[in-house]
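Sanity check

After download, print the first record. It should look like this:
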Amino acid sequence: MTCVWFPNQNAMQLNVGVITISDRAAAREYEDLGGPALRDFAQKNGWLVLAECIVPDELARIQETIKSFAAQGCALILTTGGTGIAKRDVTPEAIRGIMRVELPGFGETMRAESMKITPNAILSRNMAAVVDNALVIALPGKPSGAVECLSFVLGAIPHAVKLVQELPTSC
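Expected structure tokens:
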């Protein structure tokens, strides 16, 4: 597992953790492109990336990393990879095993909008859930797909994070 932590200079900023889930990237058989694409997207939206990690497609390792990121202050955790239907794609199962509640509208929206781009979107198991005090969004492993899917749900993220963090909202 390769993890990098960055200090938070502004507690009011949205703290983000990015987890790449890939056997091959974890084994350094190829360069991780999904994680950096999500980091760039987060930074362009004014979010602070506190941590990044690459883990293999292993249920327990995914769960441990998500729980660790949440415990260390990541209010939004973005995962990339493991949302397909291959035998090793276990990201949704890992998240469901530790979540408090699933937010089906995120997955539904990501799939519906992605269907306008590729018919293979119907195979995606993108999702979002609340784990401890964090919003976790599971995105595709392909960098462009991860960024596109995140952009489809971008408008709901700040409010969802406030609710999860039990912060005051306008509702």
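If your output differs, re-run the checksum step. Summary of this record's structure: The two ends are 40 Å apart (CA to CA).
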